[in-house]
Design brief:
Oligomer: single chain
Structural class: mainly alpha
Number of strands: 0
Distance between the termini: 66 Å
Organism: Streptomyces roseus
Protein name: Inositol phosphatase
Order of helices and strands: HH
Number of helices: 2
Number of domains: 1
Radius of gyration: 21 Å
Shape: elongated
Length: 57
């Protein structure tokens, strides 16, 4: 029986940690989007390097 209680405690702890992690990831994503804008996909390395060069100015 104590084994079952121990497992339940770990599961609850894991669920709480997962919930806190989700909040932290969403908050970080929001801050990054605010700072850098939406994700932009680049097809080639040259397109990416060109976009990065623009940011250097």
């Amino acid at each position: 029986m104590s084994e079952m209680l121990q497992t339940a405690a770990v599961t609850t702890s894991d669920a709480a940690l997962l919930a806190q992690t989700e909040i932290a990831v969403r908050t970080a994503g929001s801050a990054l989007r605010e700072r850098f804008g939406d994700v932009v996909r680049y097809e080639t390395r040259e397109e990416l390097m060109s976009a990065l060069a623009v940011n250097d100015d």
